[in-house]
Structures are given as C-alpha cells and as structure tokens.
Amino acid sequence: MQPQAFHRAVADDFSAVDEIIKKQLTSRVPLVSTISDYITSSGGKRLRPLLVLLAGKALGHQSDDLRLLAATIELLHTSTLLHDDVVDMSGMRRGRSTANAKWGNAPSVLVGDFLYSRSFEMMVELGSMSVMKILSHATRIIAEGEVLQLSKVRDASTTEEIYMEVIRGKTAMLFEASAHSAAALTGASAEQCEALRTFGDHLGVAFQLVDDLLDYRGDAETLGKNVGDDLAEGKPTLPLIYTMREGNAEQAALVRQAIQKGGIEDLERIRVAVEDCGALDYTAQLARDYVAKAIAQLEVLPASQYRNALVELSEFAVARTH
Question: Which Enzyme Commission number(s) are listed (predicted)?
C-alpha cells in the first residue's frame, strides 16, 4: 500500500506543517539551524503529524491550531531521534548518515535539546492546558521507555511483558499522544478522546512490532538503516524473545548468546532461527491483531474521508516493508 493514499486527504495541511517546522528551525547559532534542517529534511514517514491532522479533521476541526500541533509533535519526535542515535551509536538513519555521525555526539544532543525546547514553546502558543498535559506526560513516559530499554540491553532474561512495556513507552506513547492531543484540541467528547488515545497506543505498538520484525526480514537499502542494529546492540526484541522461549535448544542458545555478547557475527544464522521457529510469524500476527483493535476504536468517529484515511494509515503500518 502506498502512503500517498492517506497523505492526500490532508495534503495542503501537510505542506503547511512543513512550512511551520522550517520557520521554527531558525537560530542565531548557525550550527543549530544546519543540524536541525538536516534531520528534519531527511524524509521519514511523518506518521505522527499525519495522525494529528487526520484525527482532528475526522472530528470536524479545521483551525490552524491543528497544523501547529502537528508541527509541535514532529519536532518533539525529531528531538528524540537525535538523542536516540547518540545513545544507540547509530551511523545511519533513513538511508543516510546520522547527525551524530556527521557532526559528533555533543552537537547532536544539544540540538536535540533545542528542538525539544522549541516544541514546548509551540505547545504554549497553542494555549491548551489539556494538550500541554498530554504531551508533557508523553515526554516523560518516552524517556522512561528509553531508559528501561537501555537497562535491558544484553539481558537475555527479558520477557515479552517487559518488551511490551518498553515499546509502549518509547514508541507507542507518541502515537497515542498524537491522536489524543488532537482530540483534546478539538474539544471532543470524553468517549472520543479515550477511543483516539487507545487507537494511537495500539497503532504505535503495531508499528514498533513491524519495525522489530523488519530487522530480520528487511534489507538495509529498503529500510534506510542498518539491518541487525538491535541485535548488534544486544537489544532483546520480540522475535528474539520468542525464539528463546519457543525455539529448540540450539536456536534458543544461539539467540541468548548473541544478546549477551552483542554484535552481528551470527546475524544470518539468527535470521534463519527466528524464521524457522515461527518468531517472525508470531510478531507479524501480533501486529495485525493490534491494528485490528486500533481500527475498531475509530467507530466513535463520524464517517468521512479522514476516518477512512486513518484506517488506511493503520493498514499501511503493518503492510510496509520499511
């Protein structure tokens, strides 16, 4: 499925969001603008601002505030990417060098702080205490999710429950906040706000499950990142956790050892193991289940092209190859 289908419903708004983002990147310090522009112009799916625009419009909201909120969330997301790449020592994102690979860790962290701070200035401009509450809460949960993941690096005893807690924090939380804050901004009913919050959570979980699946089924050129990165860092993702739990003794031992020592020396053998024991099928099915639950939440919205686009976006999240 091509993402253009659900982009089209809010194409004009999306262009306006890009313009807002560009204006927010100006700084009296040239390096801040250079790195900010580099990271925000590197492409990406921009699913989070899309969620804001589609959810808000599905609720009948048409004001410029929706565009500002979408830009705010994209800047917030971008700030976390800069920090994540430093923490993960990543050299590649979206098919090109990461900011830390080009300029070093210190500038990347500090420009991440700049974008994070700028997003909060934009939140204040929105003048909605309910939106501020949702987004400030989300930033804390995201940070906790990242620290929890860090604490489980090279820990082969990590359970599926802990893994789900990690991805709910580090990934699903901002999807949840995107849909939830859009509903709050529009003054939606309590039922609609809760349904969209849940929708975002389920969609975010599915998105991360597919990301972790593609680490073993994808290729670097299509994904725009280094395949096997999570394995190299010793991160116990669901395909690995399932293999240790359900695979045969040899498969489980192979994965356990790879997590504990890090590195991708055994990547090809592990790819075979996670495929043969059913770990990738299990992960893919769980992602489909979460997307089905996400789509069910959209019943609280009136029928419209925007609700249809939210369904299409959800289906894309599990059908994608990158």
Answer: 2.5.1.90
Cα–Cα distance for residue pair 235/157, rounded to 1 Å: 11
Token pair for 304 = 């419209």
Question: For residue 106, what are the CA distances in angstroms to 82, 85, 93, 113, 257?
Answer: 11, 12, 18, 11, 33
- In tens, the pLDDT along 93-129 reads 877 899 999 999 999 999 999 999 999 999 999 999 9
Quick: pLDDT tens for 148-197.
999 999 999 999 999 999 999 999 999 999 999 999 999 999 999 999 99
Structural domains of the chain sorted by starting position, each given as residue range(s) with its CATH number in brackets: 1-127 (1.10.600.10), 129-298 (1.10.600.10)
Q: Which residues contact 97 (CB under 8 A, 6 or more apart)?
A: 91
What SS3 class is residue 41?
coil
For residue 60, the Cα-to-chain-centroid distance in whole angstroms is 26
Are the C-beta atoms of residues 60 and 186 closer than 8 Å to each other? yes
CB 304 within 8 A of CB 58: yes
